[in-house]
Amino acid sequence: MDLNKLFKAMLVAVPLMALGACSSTSDSETDANGSMSGTGSEYGAGGIETGGAGAVLSPAEQQRLKEQELRRENIIYFDFDRSEVQSENAEIIQAHGNYLVEHPNVRVLIEGHADERGTPEYNIALGERRAKAIAKYLQGMGVQSSQMSIVSYGEEKPLDYSRNDTGFAKNRRGVLVY
Questions:
Q1: What is the pLDDT along the chain (178 residues), one digit of tens a residue?
Q2: For the chain, does the N or the C end have fewer beta carbons within 10 angstroms?
Q3: Main localization of the protein (predicted)?
């Protein structure tokens, strides 16, 4: 075959392949006069749409991703002098519980904490009640007690050292540690 003919054929074929493979327009479309008009889609040569479709997730996959995001939160806050799990923390604990049920070899340490108000003895007991409340919630979901350990630090490991209501609220917590 003649190299000049081959070279000329390649010069014609390569630009045509490139035009069909990519788009240089963004959020617009070329009309018959060559001007651009916005449509919200990407179009390549000849008006062929080249934008990709977004991934469609199944409801189960959407739930898995939601729980994965919720598990990033591992602190459960409590009201002053209380050890009941509040309803606004239910989703977080449920995400951790579902994970633990699905992974029976994973263990979690549940830490109980209190703010500095009250005696050290009282705060140790309060921290323990808080950790046990989280463990009881998880057990109700089917998490095995052998997967959980509990420790109370009382007021000994504050998250916030400020001596105001905001700081005290941050210190009244249970923490799930994997």
A1: 555 555 455 554 444 444 444 444 444 444 444 444 444 444 455 666 556 666 788 888 888 888 888 889 999 999 999 999 999 999 999 999 999 999 999 999 999 999 999 999 999 999 999 999 999 999 999 999 999 999 999 999 999 999 999 999 999 999 999 9
A2: N
A3: membrane
Is there a contact between 159 and 62 (Cβ–Cβ < 8 Å)?
no
Q: For the full predicted model, state whether its pTM sits above 0.85.
A: no
Residue given tokens 């997967």 in the structure block: 147
Contact 116, 154 (CB under 8 A): no
Rounded Cα distance between 14 and 21, Å, is 11
CATH of 76-177, picked from 3.40.630.30, 3.40.50.300, 3.30.1330.60, 3.90.226.10, is: 3.30.1330.60
**Across-strand partners of 67?**
none
* Cβ-based neighbours of 125, under 8 Å, separated by 6 or more: 152, 154
Q: What 3-state DSSP class applies to 104? A: coil
